[in-house]
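Q: Got a minute? One more chain.
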Amino acid sequence: MSTIPSPANMDEAVEAVRAGMGYLATLDPAQLPACTQARLLQVLEQAHALETVARALGLRAFTAGQGYHEDGCYGAKSWLTTRLGVTKPKLRLVG
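A: Always. Here it is, folded:
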């Protein structure tokens, strides 16, 4: 059981994710024992899977609500490329 309190809202969750990933990005894995390197890789893969789910849900809601119109775009793909700089090979929108 984690001793870290659950975030109360999205802003707190975003802050926690950025803080945690920022910390991990400053680690020197070469200085860690192999078992810790393996744990780091496992945790990062789990985090990537959760990020994929969160991104898909957010993009689905954004697309369904046509949130891209507020920025003068005509679709989610054009919004992703012009506003976020997502390159076309990474764009695989479903539905």
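A: Helices lie at 10-26, 34-64, 76-83.
Q: Perfect, thanks.
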